[in-house]
Structures are given as C-alpha cells and as structure tokens.
Amino acid sequence: MDRDRLAPTVAPNRERSESDLLVRRLLRRIGFYLFVVIVGAYFALPMLWLVFAPFDAHPTLVAAPPSSFTLGNFPDLLKDPNALPSLANSVVLAVATMVLVVAAAAPAAYALSRVRIPGRDLLLYVLLLFSSVVTGTAAMVPLFLLVFDLGLINTQMGVVLVLAGGLIPAGIFILKDFVDSMPKSYEESARVCGAGSLQILRDIVLPYARPGLAVIAVWVVVNVWSNFLIPFILLRDPGLLPAAVVIYNFYTEGGQANLRLISSFGLLYSIPVVAMYLFVNRRYGFRFYGGIKG
Amino acid sequence: MSDPNATALRTRGAVAFLTPALLLIAVFLVFPALWTLYLGLTDYRLTGIQAAYPHVIGLNNYTAALGDPAFANSLWVTLLYVLGSAVIGQAGLGFALAWIFRRWRGPARNALEVLVITAWIIPSSVVAFLWIAFLDTRQGTLNAALGNAAIPWLFSWPLLSIIVFNTWRGTAFSMLLFGGALNTLPPSHLETARLAGASSWQQLRDIALPTIRGHILTNLLLISLWTFNDFTPYLITAGGPNFATDTLPVYIFRNALINFQLGYGAAISAILLGINLVIALIYMRLLRARS
Predict the structure, then answer these.
(1) Which numeric CATH code is attached to B68-290?
(2) A172/A208 same-domain check
(3) Which site among A78, A280, B234, B240 is 20 to 30 Å from B177 CA-CA?
C-alpha cells in the first residue's frame, strides 16, 4: 500500500511493461508452436502416403487412412516379374560393392595411418579433393564410355566397380580415423612379444577396428541401395535392374500407374535403409566426413 | 623408444596395402575426370563417323555451350535451385530446427527429428514419387489439404516445387551438423548472456552465430556442391515443363546420353567439374585453416 503510494507514477508503467512481457511471451509461445506445427506438417504430409497406401486395397494419390485395409498388396508383388528380383539385384550390388570397398579401403587406411609414406599428406589431400569433385553426375559421360569400352556395360560388375571407385576414398577416411584412435603401443607390445605382422593384424588391429568396419559396411550398403543414377545409365536388361530403377520405371512407363504396386514396393524397398541408418545412428551417433553422401 | 616400424607394416608392405584401393580410384575416379576434359575438346558421338574417328575441335564445344540459350537457361535454373533449396531452404530451416532443438526435450521433439531424418534417408526414387503424388493436381494431398484446390503445382510452379522438395529432402544434414556445432557452445556463455538480459535473438546473433561461423561455411559449401550435382529433380519433372527445371545434371544427361552428343555433354560435365572444384578447394582451405 505504502509502496504504491510512494511511487504513483512508476506503478502503471511497470504494470504495463509486465503485461507487455506476458503478451510477448505468449506471442512467442504461439509463434513457436505455429512454427513446429507447420514444419511438422511439411515433413509429415508427403510421407504419409507411404504409410497408408501400401495397406489400402484401392489406394489413390491422396494420403488417407485405408478405406479398406489389406495386407494383400505385399503378396501381390510376387505377380510382378521385376519387383522382387530387383530387390535381389539391389542386395547383390550392395553386398558386392561393400565387400570390395571394405577389402580395398581397410588395408589402405591402415597403411596411411601407420606408415610414414613420403607424400602421404598430399595423397590424402588429392583423394579428398577427387572424391568430392568427381560425382557420378559430373562424370556420367566418361563413366558410361569407360564401362562401355571395358565391355562391362549392362553388367552388375560395371556398376559395382564404378560405385566402389567413388566410395573408397571416403571409406579410407572413415577407417583411418578409427585406426588413428588406436594406440600404437598395442601393436608394439605384440611385436615385442614376438607376434608376426599377420598375427598382429588379425588378433589386434582387426578386433579393434571392427566397429569402424561395421560403420563403413553399413554406410556403403545404404549408399548403393539408394543409388539411382549409376545403374540407370549402365544397365539396360530389366532382369539386372536394382529396385531404385525398377520403381522409377513403375511410375514413368506409360499407362495407368499401379499404385498398389508402387506403394507396397516403395515401402518394402525403403524400410531396410531407414532401419540401417537408425541402427548405426543409435550405436555410433551422427558423424560426418567431408565430401561424402550418396 | 617408440620404433616407427614396430607396427605390422613397413614401407614396402604399405605400398602393397595401398595398391588395390589406389588402382580402383585411379581407374574409376581420377581417369574419368581427366577423360572428361579431353572429351570436351572433341566432337565425339556414340554413332556415325565421329564415333570411329573423333576429332579434336578445340574449344568449339565450350563456345557452342556459351552461345546456347538452353545452356544459359540450365545454368540459371541450377543457380536458383542451389540458392533456393540449399543455401536458403536447407541451411535456414536446418539451423532453425537445430536452434529450437537445443533445449527442447520430449517426445514431440524426437518425433519431429526422426521425421526430418527419415525424409533424408528414404531412397530418392521413392521420395520422387511421394512428391509427384503429394503435388498431383487432382488427387494430391497438398491440394486436398488446401480445401480441394486444383493447383497444378508441377506445371505452374515447377522450379519452386523442386526447391521446396529438395529443402524437405536435405534439411536433415544441416540440422544435424548445426546441432553438433551448437552443442559445442559452452552453455555458460548463453547462460551469462541470458542473465545479463540478452534476448534469444541477441544470444543467437552475438554468441551462437559468430562461434559456429566455420560450421556454417562448411555446411553451405558441402550442400551447395551436392545440390549442384543432384540428379533427383529429373525423377520428378525430367527437366520440364519447357525446361523450367532443366538443371545442369539433367542437361548433361539429355545431351550426352539421350542425344548422344558425347563431346558436347563432356564439355558441360567439365564445367560442372570446374564448379565442384572451386567449391571443394575453398572447403579444403577452410579445413586446413581450422586444423
């Protein structure tokens, strides 16, 4: 009471500024929720179709809960001559590329991490530069011609070699990080105890680098699984095409697009990469290395 | 005490360890890049007399490209695509999300984060169709959400459509990168600023942005490089309608592998390689300066 009377001119001001603050805070809250809702809708709405349509007996292009729920779209995939075989082709390409990348990048990463090779830093610099500059899109002309001249056009081998060539540099960087983090003393002690080189690699380095190998294996599989351009330009035979190209053919080939086929096949084809990503992310967290992404 | 050769390898072994990787890289990465430069100087075609006897025609492909309005259009479309979808869309939205995720915890936050990341992970030939369906004139979800509108998005607003698409597609990377960068900010700095009465905007402008400047530049360079080389718009619009979404990758693809003007296509590829090289050199300079 007294205080109010002591400061009759200040009180209304303070009241106004307090209510001002309240209003401003309220507006900020509203703005925040509005932003979250809009962004959430932006990211959710286009994806909704892939959640609903595969389970709808009569899907349309609009995303809506299935009017007549069914699981029948999935067994129906068997009727298409290309759908399931293309998933097998994707597996073949992904696994073959993964084996090649790991087999080539792991020893290279170990050598670059452990041995003082003259010009090593320059080599690493050039590798990083080429791996970021020479993308499949920018090099599609020579890649097509090279594979053509090697007689590997329309073969899975051609696709695997091209993809591996593009992924190995980044694979080396990722693995080199892992080897760099391993104390040299492990190998030195083993050497002192009389272990041979192969024994050291097998019993000490390999177990230590296993998480790194797992990361690049999954990373290569995810990249190859999703890659569209390289198989699209290098393969012709429908029996060889991976899922990435087959699903594109489903919606671009003339006639009415078969939405039951596209939706159920799209979901089946997407689930593995999302699962693999979540697995790696949960175990190793988001890491990022310059110049890579499929 | 530490003997440099005490590990499992000596120099000769190292060479053997490096050879398979370097061989594959040389043949399938380095050689194609150099070959592009040579092919761009020839009149190479896949069929006809130039297929058997390609001639070096010097810079003719380049002068032809520079004089071709279709190429100028493609370059312009690509710049708008990169600026709109990568620099403004992905980096802007990615930063906004990283900023609000900084202190926000709870299921809604996690759901939104997973949603953004999923959009980035789903294979491109699937997301391309999801957006064709989403933007469809008569049945699309977007028009349905707007109260049964019938706006032909991909026809009337093709470039804007693929910019909005690619923002959706790639925001996750910027969000994750900025999220990591903001995590390295000492919380005490922001706390002190807040106690001193700094508003969120002031904290952002005076503390967060200057501290993560390097990350912002890194991010912009990487996503620009990737977006310049992004082939996904082809899966949605195939460059059309009327070349409105004819980005450089689509332009190269059409000229080289559909019309089989390989020399001309290689010249355009060389220009794209040059753009990539400039971005990559700046990026690597930045990496060096930081380490």
Answers:
(1) 1.10.3720.10
(2) yes
(3) B234
